[in-house]
Amino acid sequence: MHKKHLRIAIVLLLAIFISPLVKAQNADQKWGVGLYLNFNDYKGDIANDFWKFKNTEPLIGSATLNRYLNPSFDALVRLSYFNVESSGTLGYFDDWMFNANLNMKYKFNNGYLLKEDAVISPFLVAGLGYTNMNAKGNVMGGGFKQKYDNINFYYGAGLTFKIDDRWSVAVESGIFYPLNDKYDGYKNKQRDTEAYHDKFMHNTIGVIYSFGKSADSDGDGVSDKRDECPGTPSGVAVDKKGCPLDSDGDGVADYMDECPMLAGDPLLDGCPDSDGDGVADKKDKCPDVKGLVQFDGCPDSDGDGVQDSEDKCPTVKGLKAFEGCPDTDGDGVIDSKDKCPTTKPGYKVDVNGCALDNDKDGVVNEEDKCPEVAGLSSNYGCPEVKAEVQKELEFAAKNVHFSSGKDVLTVKSRKILDEVVEILNNYPAYSLKISGYTDSQGKDEMNRILSEKRANATKKFLTEKGIDANRIVAKGFGEVEPIATNATAAGRALNRRVEFEMFIK
Question: How many CA atoms lie less than 13 Å away from 393 in the CB half-sphere?
């Protein structure tokens, strides 16, 4: 049993030393002294007088010194001097006891269970102490007179009744549990059980006076415990609750209020905003008209980012670059000056907003394949290939030949193709389609592959002469579409050919 109580005592002592390290809300008065009337009873081998009060005489026998640690815990020292006497079938005893206890007090008015300023506050208390006793009596026919010094445990519970900030009344009932079982002059090893171990009930009622300097962290004259605004800056005038004065009652303290005598908007440093546009009247250039913050409270009726006073087209949404006037087709010329208001996006225009047409052929530059040479709209703005040029191409095509069964150009064919290069250079907007053909000698698939090779051989010659490969389309068709009979050698020679066609992509 003693080991169990020793463990409890060790835990309580650790709690006493650790609690001051716990960050807690400060109280106004951290110290308190108390004086108590004691009513004491005994329970042990001789009798059980708990709650009977038959042998109790009230004495002013206890004094306490209380130290606030945090909202949940106090540490206190209790000094008690009291008399306990009892009698029974085994005899009687009369003891005078002095006790000094170091206790830990748990308060239920800690802000979690009850409010800290609760009028009635329950508590639990426990601790470890020293007891000195002068005992005398007669037990089992033998008289005794003895002094004892022992360690004791104490645990109890009580109520505190708050009168005001300084004064309170406390009632408490607890048990002194000494380690010595001879306080009544008798110890029977056969009865060495919890039920017969000497214990003393300690009932008290007393008054407590609290003292100590009230904490005032912000120095505004209102203690932290009562201060509803504990972080008030130094030198700021406060009310009785410790909060900065707010003369116009707009929720913005005077020291932060740019308009302290006019109720205003907290979001506007306490200044009014008559037109409700989010700009305080003192900064609003148009205080009677709801406007925009970026325009110092002035309106932008058409929402184009140009305030009405600077907008040359205030009823039509326009562009900042044109002082609020619109440019529907986005060509950089405002609608009121644009003679071509539907110009396609990205087209370069003249001062009148019309798309440029350098060669004046009626086809605008962005759609003109030959923007510097006048042509036909049906031909993408390019001139048609001249008839004599068409004849030159036809002549060249008829005279481009290959070695029999091969895709190798003849020497004469290469000279003719030089003329085709010259034509393509003269018509840079045009592309060339090369179609390759064979005679009917051999298998169809082989002829198709051969004609493809001959068309690509022709393309390769032209690109090697500087013509962009993207301007040339080469395709082989084999022995289809003959232009002469394949029954004779002369006819077959004509069928082994390429054809040229100029076109604009």
Answer: 19
DSSP 368-400: -SSTTS--BGGGTTBPPPPHHHHHHHHHHHHT-
Adjacent-strand bridge partners of 203: 39, 173
For the chain, the straight-line distance linking the first and the last C-alpha, in angstroms and rounded, comes to 109
CA dihedral 32, 36, 39, 41 (to 10 degrees): 40
Instruction: List the domain boundaries for the chain.
Output: 2-211, 387-503
Looking at residue 141, the DSSP 8-state letter turns out to be T
List, in sequence order, every beta strand (DSSP E) within 44-90. 59-68, 73-88
CA atoms within 13 A on the CB side of 281: 12
- Three-state SS sequence of 84-105: EEEEECCEEEEEEEEEEEEEEE
Q: What angle do CA 354, 359, 360 make, to 5 degrees?
A: 55
420: enclosing H helix or E strand:
helix 411-426
Which is it for strands 472-476 and 431-436: parallel, antiparallel or unpaired? parallel
- Per residue in 322-342, pLDDT (tens digit) is 788 888 888 888 888 888 888
Domain 2-211: assigned CATH number: 2.40.160.20
| Residue whose structure tokens are 């079982």 | 181
Question: Which CATH entry fits the domain spanning 387-503: 3.30.450.40, 3.30.1330.60, 3.30.1330.200, 3.40.50.300?
Answer: 3.30.1330.60
Question: How does pLDDT run across 36-66, given as a tens digit for each residue?
Answer: 998 888 888 888 888 876 655 666 689 999 9
Element (H, E) at 43: strand 31-43
| Rounded alpha-carbon distances, angstroms, from residue 143 to 4, 109, 137, 482 | 33, 50, 6, 154
- The answer to whether the pTM exceeds 0.70 is no
Tokens 């269970």 locate to 113
**Sheet with 431-436, edge to edge strand ranges:** 472-476, 431-436, 498-503
